[in-house]
């Protein structure tokens, strides 16, 4: 007797892991990928009564006749110390950079510490001193803070929470929703250094050369970009700025494409990747475009003034290696694609969770 054909009803298909019904927090919820977005959009925003809108690293608030930017962040990186920096550098630089990406110049920071019982005071002192020096070098004050201690085993040595406030200059309007077709996409320098620096220490892997974190404050670079645009005749030429931290460059490009409902096209060969980072990622099966950075930015700029903005970036040490990597198009809105070395294109999409957890 011949076998009867099997009929499959697509309505009966079930995802093996319903992302919004896992019931528990997983590491991927903190990774800056799809799970992070779902957590924010489906849990936090409804709970806080948020009105929605594009995702930003800081909120812009009208105060009197001006505007301020306000941001908050938490740092749980492990290990606490790594080539070129420690958790203190990240806490200061990361908070400043979130403000800078809204066009704000930072004014003051706060610092809260959750300390595990048994943490060596020498370790805490070294990190606090680092934060103080980093803030001083950036021209910002740490004005208040808080400390809590939890029992041994209730935390992983030390967590830091920060908040930052900055002033947005008149006429500056930067946001992910402002990217538009024709914009030039500029990257301020090589990608992947921070994530690989963390991984090399955490896993004890020797890549043949030391890879150091790129952690650095970016507010002076953003100020130079805005100044260069203004001198070229259009102070609003810088439409969007983002620092590609968790999820790397890919996460930033996709988030901006979605927020502005535009397409983003980049030339993969134009993205600078240090040899050591490329080798490490090849060995570990990672995509360097999705590895975290802590001292780089990606900007979407009006094409008529892109050369002036790029020249201004080259005048700052943080932007000395800035380069054009792509453009914004009207096609495939909400998507980012990369042109490969073989002349083909591929869709670039965020990871579900994250390639490297706890890198900031």
From TrEMBL:
Stretches assigned to the PurM-like C-terminal domain: 180-332
Membrane-crossing segments per the record: none
Domain PurM-like N-terminal, residue spans: 57-168
SUPFAM superfamilies, A to Z: PurM C-terminal domain-like, PurM N-terminal domain-like
Matches recorded under InterPro entries: HypE, PurM-like_C_dom, PurM-like_C_sf, PurM-like_N, PurM-like_N_sf
Gene Ontology biological process terms from the UniProt entry: protein maturation
Protein name, as recorded: Hydrogenase expression/formation protein HypE
């Amino acid at each position: 007797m011949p076998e009867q054909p099997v009929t499959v009803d697509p309505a009966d298909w079930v995802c093996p892991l319903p992302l919004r019904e896992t019931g528990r927090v997983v590491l991927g919820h903190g990774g800056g990928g799809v799970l992070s977005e779902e957590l924010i959009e489906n849990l936090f925003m409804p709970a806080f009564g948020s009105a929605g809108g594009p995702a930003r690293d800081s909120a812009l608030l009208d105060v009197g006749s001006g505007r301020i930017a306000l941001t908050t962040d938490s740092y749980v990186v492990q290990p606490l110390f790594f080539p070129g920096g420690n958790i203190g550098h990240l806490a200061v630089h990361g908070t400043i950079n979130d403000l800078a990406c809204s066009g704000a110049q930072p004014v003051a920071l706060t610092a809260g510490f959750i300390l595990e019982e048994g943490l060596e005071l020498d370790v805490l002192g070294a990190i606090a001193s680092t934060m103080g020096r980093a803030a001083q070098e950036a021209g910002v004050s740490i004005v208040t803070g808080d400390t809590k201690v939890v029992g041994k085993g209730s935390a992983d040595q030390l967590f830091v929470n920060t908040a930052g406030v900055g002033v947005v200059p008149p006429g500056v309007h930067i946001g992910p929703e402002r990217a538009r077709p024709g914009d030039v996409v500029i990257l301020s320098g090589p990608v992947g250094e921070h994530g690989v620096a963390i991984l090399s220490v955490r896993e004890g892997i020797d890549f043949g050369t030391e890879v150091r974190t790129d952690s650095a404050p970016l507010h002076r670079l953003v100020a130079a970009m805005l100044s260069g645009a203004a001198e070229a005749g259009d102070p609003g030429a810088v439409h969007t700025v983002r620092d590609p931290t968790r999820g790397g460059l890919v996460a930033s490009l996709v988030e901006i494409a979605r927020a502005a409902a535009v397409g983003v096209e980049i030339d993969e060969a134009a993205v600078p990747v240090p040899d050591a980072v490329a080798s490490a990622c090849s060995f570990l099966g990672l995509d360097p475009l999705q590895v975290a950075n802590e001292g780089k930015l990606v900007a979407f700029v009006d094409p008529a003034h892109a050369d002036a903005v790029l020249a201004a970036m080259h005048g700052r040490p943080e932007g000395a290696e800035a380069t054009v990597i792509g453009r914004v198009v009207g096609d495939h809105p909400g998507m980012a694609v990369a042109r490969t070395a073989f002349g083909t294109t591929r869709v670039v999409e965020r990871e579900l969770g994250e390639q490297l957890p706890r890198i900031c």
